[in-house]
Amino acid sequence: MSSYLGIASALSLIAGLMWPLQAAAVAWVVAAWVEGSSEHSAVALLVFAAAALLRAVLDYCAGGYLFKAADITITRERSALIQREARARSAHSSAEIAALMVQKLPLLQPWITRYYIAMVRVAVIPLVLAALCFWLSWVAALILLIAGPLIPVFMVLVGMAAESASRKQMDEIGSMNAMLMERLSAMLDIRLLGAVDRALGDFSERAEGLRLKTMAVLRIAFLSSAVLELFSAIGVAMLAVFVGFTLLGAINFGTWGNTLGLAEGLFILLIAPEFFQPLRDLAAAWHDRAAGLSVASELEDLDAAERVAFVGSGNAAQPLEGPLSIDLAAAVAALPGKALALPDLALSAGQSLALMGPSGAGKSTTLACIAGLLPLKEGRLMVCGQALSDSNADAWRARIALIPQTPQFPDQSLAEWLDPEGRGLDPWPALRMAEAEAVVTGLADALQTRLGESGGGVSGGEARRLMIARAILSGRELIIADEPTADLDPESAAAVIRALLRLQEQGHSLLVATHDPALAAAMDRAIEVAP
Amino acid sequence: MKALISVIALLVASAPKTLLRGAVLSVLTLLMGIALLGLSGWFITATAMAGIAGIGIAFDVFRPSAGVRFLALGRTAARYGERVLTHDATLRALAALRVMLLRRQAQQGAKVLASLRSEAVLTRIVSDVDALDGLLLRLLLPGIAAVLTHLAVFLALAWLVTWSLATAVLLGYVPLALIILYCLARRTQSPSAELELQQQSLRRALIDTIRHRHSLILSAGLAEREAELLALDAQTRHSAQALDRQERGAGLLLSLLVAGVSVLALFFGERLVNAGGTGPALAAIGVFVALALAEALPPLRRGFADFGRMYGAAQRIAGGAARSAETALKAPSHVLNSALLELEVSSTTWRLEAGDSLAITGSSGSGKTSLMLQIAGLLDSEGITVLGRPPQQWPDSELRRIVCMVPQRSALIAGTIRENLQLAQDASDEALWAALQVVALDQVIAERGGLDARLGEGGAGLSGGQARRLALARAILKRPQLLLLDEPSEGLDAETADRVLRGIRAALPDTAIVANLHRFVDHPIFERHLAL
């Protein structure tokens, strides 16, 4: 990436240095008009056009390299995010990670393509142009250096103001959007309460308040960029007046003893605006810098976040050998930033066990540890007679089917979802066993339905029965279910319990976490998990 | 295009005066910058000629140099004013756009309203609104300013120099620049749309991966999923690159255009000077003005490169005909002799009058919630009348005065308890406390610091059952004639549920209550039962 940036900087600087050439050509043509000797102006026009073409092409190419440099950075960060979040979770929500990756990461691009290159140009081009002026007239160079007083001082001034302005504006839009999202997500309630007009009035009022506050800051912030504009305009004006008076003969100093000709005068006038242009570009790109920096600091936060990786690698493996058994003793789970003691438990092939206890006691954590989804900090976990470790965790998991607490349907067809490994199984026997046959036939596209994010189209109990069908279809011996009857009406809960018991009859082992006394009673044993 | 124009109209209407003044100042800023360079060029050339002719003393230096100083200061002042005014107008427009969006969404049916809880839908809407934020500041204002500036420059050049030079500059810039920008806008449209779709799927896929991480690990599908995500990411970058190439290509053409027009001005200037009709100083004005006009172009390049994104966003946000139910329907003048609610379910008719109560039962998926949304007029229905009229034929505001529904998953907003309770209407503190007492929440709220205690985003800070009761209290304050409760006892223990149900009945003796229940079906406040 740094080589791309280097090439881009070089190209962009050469492009910037084409302008003196173009300015000289224009000055030469116009001066020739006054002298009445315009036979060579075709050559000058050609030089002007050729330099302009070169400049445009160089800028185009520099832009391409800058894009590539930015692209490499964004790709690197994105793949890091993807791999890290899938492998070891932090406490950030999936929506936050997604927003960072999809919406915010691309903000690094203008930081690199606009701000970075403006920095490079501002460090070189004004100095070169001032030196060219100095060669013709020290007064002209002095005017430029006074008008652009010690460029770094200038930049600090502009930078501070522009930064506060752009941050203010980003905040403003941020809080307005947060407000918008909240009102939108509450819109069903607002509508049902008949409060639409009132909510809109309230929204407008708050937006108006935000606007007044923001404008107060912006008015001051814009003043400082007006200073930059003022200096650049005054610089050009002073140069024009100085050159004009020199040409009239009213001023006789500042030109190394030679008299300044029209061509030299016009040349100075033409390069003056370009002296200030990099500064103005930099001020304009400050917004991109602020946005880029805020993304960078979010990335750093994420880097520093505490994470806990799962046991094993997550790759496909042959199922672990030996009769199924679990033995968990004196174990403590390692959660991000804390540790949680787990209950002792033992389970052998064909048995069923319920974990009971208030929410927060560690039921779900226990299930996750047994599946190797969370590591143990201390204690013992034996599975099929071996201690669970990175080397056998994938093989152990090949014997487990998990039914998570919240129904989760990724964005794929029901058929694909039921048979994730694409083994071409017939799903209907499993659906029948889970009492989910009618659920599927009731859907408009049956097995081709895409249930999507919220599981739209099926109720909570139906979703649970579909997940049980999926577990049956996986053919795995140990079924781990987290609160399979929560939020279900009694009939639906009974159907879920029947389906689970049918699984046990077929030789599966069951491990469930639940609040539901009916489900706990249906299991062989129940263990109370103390908080 | 219609959608985009309607968004523009809305944005402009939100602050027409400020916007007009801002536009005038942007033109003035551009013109003064151009005049500064033109006048300076003329001044230098003219002074050189006077110097050569030896009439330097007689040359009036004061008016031109005063002009140069005036333009330098004027430009700065105009630029400052322009920035303040256009940002002010943009902030107003931002608010107007969001209010319009909220209003449109509020008129949608139950399905759309429920989808607004999905985080993906919300982010999409917000990203669309963000895209449209640039419409004024990056596209419309610079576009108008560029066109007006070119016209003004044309007239000035024609008056100062000659018609032919003025025409050459105008015809050199305007048609070609329009073609370049038009092509840029067209060519970015499809990569913009693709990028938008790819970003949505990348986003969804990442959220899927994180949420279903456990399942993926168990089915050994993690590596495969990572590869899929990286492939999606590569697609988005491919589209982004296509967009970037288009924008840079347009930039290349625009800078060549500036060079071409400048050569044209030099060429015409030389012919004028050689023909003898125009002095070199005046001809120089044409050259300097042609160079300075370039300043109007770069802002447009960025604006037009975003055109595709803005266009797509406008289609989604303002596309399609808005449902203007309010205008089409008038409140009926007589609704005599009709039951408050009439329900026809499997050929049995249920009539409810003031003070009646009905419990609806049925297994999950039997359509309890849909029936309730139909009564509330958010889903199309048959066989339901409220005061003699089908709900969807009532003007929305009238229906809301009669019917109030508390959905199963109620949303609270960030803010104080008071703000949450007063979402629908103002009420005295006594009334607020009374409502809280009805739902057995008064003690909880008092312990948390009273009505001015703040809740976090989405009502964070209350447990599920407490949030539910706060939503019930909000509905009680409305004192509707017909109250629809979807699973009011969900998340409440038996004792609290009993208190809340009795409390609501006692607080609203004249209200007809319909509730969807799967627990406490036999609670004494329900006189009748309907099993679906």
UniProtKB/TrEMBL annotation, chain B:
It is a multi-pass membrane protein. Residues 22-316 form the ABC transmembrane type-1 domain. The chain crosses the membrane at residues 32-59, 139-159, 165-185, 250-269, 281-300. GO terms for molecular function: ABC-type transporter activity; ATP binding; ATP hydrolysis activity. GO terms for cellular component: plasma membrane. It is found in: Cell membrane. Pfam families: ABC_tran. Signal peptide: none annotated. Its main location: membrane. Keywords: ATP-binding, Membrane, Nucleotide-binding, Transmembrane, Transmembrane helix. InterPro entries: AAA+_ATPase (IPR003593), ABC1_TM_dom (IPR011527), ABC1_TM_sf (IPR036640), ABC_transporter-like_ATP-bd (IPR003439), ABC_transporter-like_CS (IPR017871), P-loop_NTPase (IPR027417), Type_1_exporter (IPR039421). Residues 329-532 form the ABC transporter domain. This is ATP-binding cassette domain-containing protein.
